Amino acid sequence: MTKNNPYDFVPLGPAADRLAIATQEKFAGHSGTLTCRLQTLTHFFIAGNQERQARNQHQELRLLREGNAPIIPGSSLKGAIRHLAEAISGSCFILPNDTRMRSRRQDKLEYYDYQTRRREAYPLPDGFSPCGLGEASDPRKQTACPACRIFGFLADKALSTGNVSFETAHVAGDYQTATIILEPFGAPAPRHRPFYGTKASNFQEPRGRKFYYHRVQGARMMNQKLDFNKTVEALLPGAVFEFAVQYQNLSDADLSLLIYALALEEPMRHKLGMGKGVGLGSVHLTVTGWRQTERRNRYLQFGGGTTNFSGADLQNAVKAQIDAYHRHYARWKDSLTALQEILAWDEQHPRDARYPARAWLKDNPAVALEDVTEDAADYGKRPATAAPRPFTPSAPRPEQEKAAADAKKDAENLLRQLEKEKQTQAVQRQTAYQNNATEPKAQVELAADGFWCVILPKLPEQRVKLKRKPDFSKAVAGAKIRVRVVVDGNGNIVRAEEL
């Protein structure tokens, strides 16, 4: 595995068997509630709601809060735990992709690249296509991989809500925040096949699922605000959150997978939130309580059907489930070994991997991920030199004074021309669309910060925030949709609303 890059991939292993789903109206399998504690080990950040900013503008992002206190949404927790469970169980690939373009056999994993505006496709082995493709809409007739049985899926006409739910994590006790300027980091770049594809397939087949190494030292920061980096309000190490996970109708194997993905084994730790590649997001998650529920008995006896675990009993019960995971999912031992190496938290031997410099990537376009050199991050930088001697200016000659005057005049003329062009562009933006105008060919994009936007044909250089239809939206990346353009009293485009 690579030692010189912030991320690596967990290999797929064999595809898991797809079994029947235990629907919620049945009393089948295991049910209960797990209470969990999450402590931040490094800087930690999940963005709250804020106004969308232009791409070429420095972004300053605030923490997600409820009231006055930071929170972690249940959806963020569920997504992180699901991704981990998928990697160590041979589960399907549900993202990233438009499932309408996929099939059960000869499937391809497709990424949409927002810079090149094209799709990058990696063929997948049989058995990894999304659950639900070609399945009946009746949940009682559906089959699914382990992760989809636990967490649910949506594909074509098939829908499964899953058998697990994650509550919002609320901060417990005191916490501290700091406003920090992060080193630049961009969106994933699957177009760079030597990093995302396997060397054995000439970089055509996917390496697997992507995970980020821990950086014990914390976030990579800088002092300068640039148009391609971000300032964030981050939680400092030591902040504690508490949340609960409810599950029902899980089989023995599925329960062991869920608990392993939550508890992990030493010295593994979870990664969560934004900025994982520059050192944010390392957390220590522990199971602090467990109430097992016999759903049938709850309806037969008041207060019955529940068993609570705490202290040593809880530790033994969790350990038993971890052992059960190793038995049920032994076929994915290689995948687990790779994940254990990536997620290892080692304060004695901290990893300090960094993204390769752009100059290195440009000069080494065919070098595989595992062959990245140790100096790749500093490639092309000028070596430090001795301090220069003090500069003593001399009196300018007449020809130098004339050249300086001419240069100043040219610069002033250029500034006036640029200002005139800027004013012209502003007028064009304000007159391109009237309020409530309809644009039938707006192209949809999903920005790196997770917000949907569109490109309007009359303003191809401007990204406009998109308000999607709440149900059955046709807005998918790369699609062209019909929108209503909303313009304020000053002629500025506020947003586009899907029709």
Structure description:
There is one protein chain. With 499 residues, the protein is an alpha+beta fold. The chain folds into 2 domains: 7-376, no CATH class; 432-498, OB fold (Dihydrolipoamide Acetyltransferase, E2P). Helix content is 22%, strand content 27%. The protein has helices spanning 74-87, 146-151, 193-196, 252-263, 295-298, 311-328, 333-342, 358-363, 398-432, and strands at 7-10, 19-20, 30-40, 59-61, 65-66, 69-72, 108-113, 118-123, 143-144, 153-155, 158-160, 164-166, 169-171, 177-181, 209-212, 230-235, 240-250, 270-271, 282-293, 306-309, 437-446, 452-456, 459-467, 480-487, 493-498. The strands form 7 sheets. Strands 3, 5, 6, 12, 13, 17, 18, 19 and 20 form a 9-stranded antiparallel β-sheet that branches. Strands 21-22-23-25-24 form a 5-stranded mixed beta barrel. Strand 24 and strand 25 form a beta hairpin. Helix 1 packs across helix 4 (252-263) and helix 4 crosses helix 6. The longest helix has 35 residues, at 398-432. The mean pLDDT is 85.
Describe, in short, the structure shown.
By secondary structure, the protein is of the alpha+beta class. 22% of the residues lie in helices and 27% in strands. It folds into two domains: 370 residues, no CATH class; 67 residues, OB fold (Dihydrolipoamide Acetyltransferase, E2P).
